[in-house]
Amino acid sequence: MIKAAVVGASGYIGGELVRLLAMHPEVEISAVTSRRYNGKKIHKVHPNLRGLNLRFTSNYNFDTDVIFLAVPHGTSMKIIDDYMGSAKIIDLSADFRVGLNLYKEYYGEHLKPELIGEFVYGLPEIHREEIKKAELIANPGCNATAVILALYPFKGEVSEAIVDLKVSSSAGGRRENVASIHPERSNVVRVYKSFHHRHEAEVRQETKINAQFTVHSVDLVRGLLATIYFKMETNEKELYKKYFRYLKEAFVRIVKEKGGMQRLPDPKYVIGSNFVDIGFTYDEKSQRVILFSALDNLIKGGAGQAVQNMNIAFGLEETLGLNYLPVYPI
User: pLDDT of 27-45, one tens digit each?
Assistant: First the structure.
């Protein structure tokens, strides 16, 4: 059995990690940490986990095989030295996802620049072979995962794209924020980032495409939809061929129907799963391509992808503990 510790288990992604790991047939949870909730039973924070015999601890010295850092951005680089060499590390913050120049452009100064090059970018559909040998894995951002997987087949052919993102409230994390309370968040379609979203850095790094994000908060608890626009002389048959690279990918579904409500990706139909649904349309007159990419930000955009990376890094079947269908209706 693989012993797994979740550092920062009180957040939404931390809670989903615990849920997935608790059901994983090859994993034993060795520790779930939280300074704020030290000593409390886990269901006091995550009521859906009632029945798990786990308590939060603030003791960060534990014997484990893999450590998931489910901590806020900027925290991992402050605590990484405490864990280096003791276990495989899967970091779910943004601290080690991109090179130093991009990090400085989008985030500012880095406290551990010498470690950035040691981390593998944990997007299995692109970096599977590197992940197999990795000791340090940087789990991608939720928006970045959706956009990169949709755009990657166009790497080298497209230089610029416009990305419209509709994101849910859970993407903002669990910390108290007036913008996320129900009276302010309900019934909104609110623009909160029109340029220079931090996940652009990951897209630029992985696809070499200058993707400009505009992000909207919408009235969803979980899930996101990326709508991506660019011009290219092509046709629908060729667009289908672009996505042949994903035919053997367990968690990528190409959604392109001729009609009906579900003819293109919708986050409603991936909730609770590790799937990303990708679709497209093309207008010959304007030569405009529109891509659509939907995923659950807490699963394929977070905890599920982290478990997928763990499976690969430990030589397990990649889908182990993740091979289930989305929840519907929701």
Answer: 999 999 999 999 999 999 9
